[in-house]
What we know:
Elements: H1 2-9, H2 13-21, H3 27-34, H4 50-62, E1 66-70, H5 75-90, E2 94-98, H6 111-119, E3 124-128, H7 135-143, E4 147-151, E5 167-169, H8 185-199, H9 210-219, H10 227-238, H11 245-253, H12 269-285, H13 289-297, H14 301-335, H15 337-340, E6 345-350, H16 357-368, E7 372-378, E8 381-387, H17 394-399, E9 405-410, E10 414-420, H18 424-439, E11 452-453, H19 461-468, E12 482-488, E13 494-496, E14 500-512, E15 515-524, H20 530-533, E16 541-550, E17 560-569
Parallel strand pairs: 1-2, 1-3, 3-4, 4-5, 6-7, 11-12, 15-17
Antiparallel strand pairs: 7-8, 8-10, 9-10, 12-16, 13-14, 14-15, 16-17
Helix pairs in contact: 1-2, 5-8, 5-9, 5-13, 6-7, 8-9, 9-10, 9-12, 11-13, 11-14, 12-13, 12-14, 13-14, 14-16
Amino acid sequence: MARMLAAAMDLPENVAELLAARGISSVEEANRFLHPSIDQLHEPMDMLGMRQAVARLECAIAEREPMLIYGDYDVDGTMATVILKTVVELLGGQCDFHVPHRLREGYGMRDEVVERAAADGVRLIISVDTGIRAFAEAETAARVGVDLIVTDHHLVAASEGVPRALAVLNPHQADCQYPCKHLSGAGVVFKLAQALLERAGRAKLIPSFLKVVAIATVADSVPLLGENRVIVALGLKGLSRVVNPGLKALLEVCELGPAGMKQGRALTVTEVAFRIAPRMNAAGRMDVAHDVVELFTVKSAARAKELAEKLDGLNRARQVEEQRISDAVLRQVEENAELRDAACMVVEGEGWHRGVIGICASRVVERFGRPAVVISRDGEEAHGSGRSIPGFHLLHALETAPELFLRFGGHAGAVGFAMRAEKVDELRQRLNEYAKAQLGAEPLQPVLEFDGELTMDQITPRFWEQLKALQPFGAGNPEPVFVARGVTLMGQPKVMREKHLKLKLRRYVNVEPGALSRGLEALGWRMAHRLGADPLAGGDLLDVLFRIEENTHQDFGGVLQLVLSDYRRAEGR
Ligand SMILES: [Mn+2]
């Protein structure tokens, strides 16, 4: 298959192999994959419930009925809210929105919000990114005379069915024929927006919504395949020319605005996931998700700037907190031999911010290759967040001690829970015993996977161009990881900011006519500590595991560099 694609499409074989590994089995499919375009969007009317939803909304817009959008506080939920509010207003309707308070209300719809809306004269509520399990709230809506349209993308429990509503839009419904099952919440709302705009003769406006759908799609980590790939590919391009004052201001504080960027460069998934989304999520964590919706719908550039700076400040506070806790967590592990040898590492502290302990647990997993749980004590209660390694089902581990928790949930790779603080020691002991039995006493060797092997000299600008056509990378379409063996280290390794490693690896490549490049830089984020155990020197031979990246720095951007996932001394040399 790969060979056929390589020949038919004039691609290097290792790029064609990547396509085949993503399930692409014909030239036509490969062309669609490599050239996402707006005409690849599916027909919105194919979604179950769309006709009824559109008809009811058109009526509400024409009558200028007051309606309420019931959203969620994360990026997906706020962007879904923004899309629907914008479209309704564009078409001449009016609507208000409600985004729940994360700590006070929690996730999901609530009766009192429905009742209050009814009392205020609302006759139509549209839930976005939420509502698929709002059975009681749907009954409440019916009782108080409010029509409910549910739009959601969370899984439908087959045994429970869906709430009784005027229409339910969710491609996961068993009898929904819609081809793309893994849209984000904002993606589902975008289909509704697409239908409304097409029918109103305003189809020209549809592409302008792709930017916010793309942000939500990336932030919600849904697979970037099928329609999501089209949305994200086109949306990222659109982010290089933004007119919305809120989005403009937000890009500016992320240093992704026109001032800090090479002209017209499309944003990357990484930039959205690690620079834009955290600022928007910081709002949800600090309970000002309302501000995100306002930011994206405000007309005044001055107010937009103010809101974007507020989000940026909240995010900075979050980062400082994350660094502080992360340092404390790693210090605890390093100073405590018992903890260091534990099969599952349980670390705790007083009053650590609950919004960041999950990320700190990931740091422990990354460093020590073992499942980790980080717990924040707060008086008599304790909240924890855990992350695991492949082959260890962390939720199953918690399920062996359900009596220790007030609440818990999650999946194989990540869990969250609340418990009484006095039970933390028992949890540590039980998790450790369970993990020891499951994983064995031997220290774990993490398994690293890669997509293909390259020699350093194959890493050329032309290869990169061909590889880049597989972007945007993300969930469902992971960034390819390659291995190169027996690579020569040039000169001493450099340490950056005491944490990171920078290696120069030998490569002879003509980067442009007449310009021979003798070395390629490889960055090892948070790998500097490894030099302590095994100092490297120029001339050493290494096996390296890496992904390829283009340096996007404004001044010396465009240069290829490697980002290391791992390295070791070359075997048998
Ligand atoms: Mn969502």
